Amino acid sequence: MPSHDARIIRGAAIPTAVAGAVALAISTAVVGSKGLIGALFATLLVMAFFSFGQVALDRLTRNNPQMMMAAGLLVYTTQILLVAIVLAVFKDTSLFDTKVFGFTLLGCALIWTAAQVRAALKAKTLYVQTESGDKPSDSERQQ
Question: For a FRET experiment, which of 15, 23, 86, 138 has its CA 20 to 30 Å from that of 99?
Answer without folding.
Answer: 15
